[in-house]
Amino acid sequence: MAKGLLGIESLSRAEIEAILARAKDFQPLQNQTNKRLDLLRGRMIVNLFFETSTRTRTSFEIAAKRLGADAVSITASGSSVQKGESLVDTLNTLAAMKPDAIVMRHSASGAPDFLARHLETPIINAGDGTHEHPTQALLDALTILDHRRTLEGLRVAIIGDIVHSRVARSNIHLLSRFGAGIVLCGPAPLLPSCMAQLAPGVRLTNDMRQAIEGVDVIMMLRVQLERQNESPFPAGEYYPFYGLRLEHMTAAKPDVLVMHPGPINRGREISSDVADSPSSVILNQVENGIAVRMAVLERIMK
Ligand code: NCD
User: Fold this and answer.
1) Which domains can be identified in the chain, with CATH numbers?
2) 261 CA from centroid of ligand 1 (Å)
3) DSSP single-letter state for residue 76
4) Residues 122-137: pLDDT tens digits?
5) Backbone torsions φ then ψ of 199, nearest 5 degrees
């Protein structure tokens, strides 16, 4: 693996497998009374978030601490970015304090790649614009593997705002590496035909029932209104066509897994009775976020 983690696209299947195997080692720790290891004692990460985050930022911080490292979190609103400092200057300033890795989230696709070329400090991408969110795809894979023997040959539907989703892109790269069949589903304005070219064998449909039929996993996505100037459909039009509801579950396999990276919008892309149903592994995804981020931090900082 390169010195940081910028995306899934640049990872080999063997590298992905190694991270997932190590994350599995860390899973039992999350339920122990003493959750702290000493593997990264004396190391430090800086979490630099230019976009909002609950799960990702907290779990990187917890992951670092469970490995015995220190973690400092900064949000753009409380930093000198507000005073006009450039991204490179902000990153160089933080790098001068000698962290062992910088975890960053930014609204511009490619910002972590750009900074990685300017900095010696390893950069971990915690979500860049509509581009990639590598640790999300890794924790999604780990969650699927908690319930299925292999990703090979699995059928996965990703439903919602595909075009603006870094979660979808990272998952497409990861799942296709393992030969999973992927169907992308959403309203036409959020599902341009070029999305089929992201990986071989990706199918597109605007019909939710068609997407769900026979799949092993349903991944729901939030509509990323913050990445659009205008809503691509009239208010109230989305949920009746693309909101996952109990009535859809009868068309799905009985043991289908329902996933969502969060934050979920109940009654907008998913109903409460599905989000809280036994098929839902949404909170397992959150839990696995810590084990996966421990594996990634260890790999990069050890
Ligand atoms: C996602 C993100 O930020 O890309 N959330 C997350 O990290 N769990 C998805 C979203 O914001 O909808």
Assistant:
1) 13-132+288-301 (3.40.50.1370), 134-285 (3.40.50.1370)
2) 6
3) G
4) 999 999 999 999 999 9
5) -160, 155
CA-to-CA dists, residue 13 to 1, 17, 90, 177, angstroms = 11, 6, 34, 6
Tell me the CA distances in angstroms from 121 to 127, 234, 284, one per residue in order. 18, 45, 31
Secondary element (H or E) of residue 144: helix 134-147
Letter for the amino acid at 42? G
The tokens 């019909």 sit on which residue?
207
- Token representation of residue 277: 């149903």
How far apart, in whole angstroms, are the C-alpha atoms of residue 277 and residue 250? 13
Mean pLDDT for back-to-back runs of 10 residues, the chain (302 residues): 87 98 98 97 97 96 98 86 88 95 97 95 98 99 98 97 98 97 97 96 96 98 90 88 96 96 97 98 98 98 92
Q: Which residue's CA lies nearest to atom 7 of ligand 1? A: 56
Residue 103 makes CB contacts below 8 A (sequence gap 6+) with 45, 46, 47, 48, 60, 123, 124, 126
- DSSP-derived 3-state class of residue 114: helix
- pLDDT computed for residue 235 by the predictor: 78
pLDDT for position 1 = 46
Q: Which of the listed residues 57, 135, 136 should we mutate to test ligand 1's pocket, taking the one with most ligand atoms within 8 A of CB?
A: 136
Ligand 1 first shell, C-beta below 6 A = 55-56, 127, 133, 136, 166-167, 222, 261-262
pTM of the prediction? 0.97
Measure Cα distances from 174 to 90, 144, 147, 159, 278 in Å: 31, 12, 17, 17, 25
Is 251 exposed, middle or buried, given 0-12, 13-18 or 19+ CB atoms closer than 10 A? Answer: middle
> In angstroms, what is the span from residue 269 Cα to ligand 1's centroid?
14
